[in-house]
Request: fold
Amino acid sequence: MHAQSGHRPTAALKGLLVATAAALGILAATAGTAPAADPPAAGDALMGRARELFKPLPATLPAIRNNAVTREKIELGKMLFFDPRLSASGIFSCNSCHNLGLGGVDGLETSVGHGWQKGPRNAPTVLNAVLNVAQFWDGRAEDLKAQAKGPIQAGVEMNSTPDRVMAVLNSIPTYKAKFADAFPNEKDPVTFDNVAMAIEAFEATLTTPAAPFDQYLEGKADALTDTQKAGLELFIDKGCAGCHNGVNVGGHDYFPFGVVAKPGAEILPPGDKGRFAVTKTADDEYVFRAPTLRNVTLTAPYFHSGKVWDLRQAVAVMGSSQLGATLSDQEIDKITAFLTTLTGQQPRVEYPLLPASTPATPQPVFK
Ligand code: HEC
Ligand code: HEC
Reply:
């Protein structure tokens, strides 16, 4: 029995489904067939409205563009995700900053990486990241395989190089065998590209289905309390759902932070102009991807600056900055109650056993 990273005992089956879908070239970015939903009960107009704006998170693995997901790739990707030897110091793994026991984040204002350096931005969760339109707060990586190469090389994160990563992996026979299993048709499977492909395949398993809100969208009217429903109604009526919608309740488009009123420099540091750095278009100054709000109660602190620790305050800031609305305490409570319904089943990840280093493995370097 392989240690799988699925949410359920059916992980193997899901893996198979995805492999088949991918082999057929079916792209299910917003993921597959929605489960057969019961029609909303007469009078439950709210459920009908919600279904027009949001989609339940499917229980099947989303297929990935140009990367057929197999069990072998997932298993290798999981090892790489947890292996600190991808960093120059041997200290930081992907899981250091995207801790899968902590909602896929590090819980820090901004991340701390190589040499105790503090990076410029808060770490977004890897949970459900596969469903986002592009990766990073500014969308500068088009998908997870493009994304994964960034942190390994970033000076403030893992501070390694593709050559060093290749030297590490080639020095460990078990890794060479795992790459051969995961990329069976390749003559020289241990490549930096394949590191990224395998990590992407593992990350595709990190979805969190069956949140109370998903159950509601699937027709279970009592999956939300009355207060949570009132919060959902406010979330739609006040306009939050204009930017945070779809299967990921966000993650699919870019907006200025401060559509109506710019938040203070404390929350929106003037030095980080967001998507402007990607597109060099004046319109994109202080534009950021609206993040997914799935599992948001697990992922404090909030915003790309990580300056807000209280979800209620984040909701208030959104009201004033994005909608020009001063939300009352009661409204904030209700919206926050709704946001708690977005916490889904967390992936059950069994910690992988990593193969031992050999005398040929490059030694850690700290500067
Ligand atoms: C030192 C901390 C750190 C490490 C180590 C790290 N990350 Fe990140 N990660 C971040 C930060 C910070 C961001 C946001 C950067 C930005 O938007 O400019 C991020 C962004 C991401 C995103 C984008 C999510 C989204 O919604 O946009 C993914 C996916 C991700 N990292 C995966 C990984 C993987 C895979 C690894 C290992 C190869 C890794 N990270 C290593 C801190 C880290
Ligand atoms: C015009 C688009 C827009 C609207 C409307 C909007 N948001 Fe946002 N939201 C964003 C963007 C963009 C960010 C990221 C800001 C940043 O950190 O740069 C964000 C961030 C957030 C965050 C922080 C999430 C995290 O992981 O850091 C929360 C919570 C949030 N929004 C909730 C709401 C709520 C509740 C409403 C309605 C009161 C709302 N949003 C309205 C675009 C919007």
Summary: The beta strands are 112-113, 117-118, 254-256, 287-289.
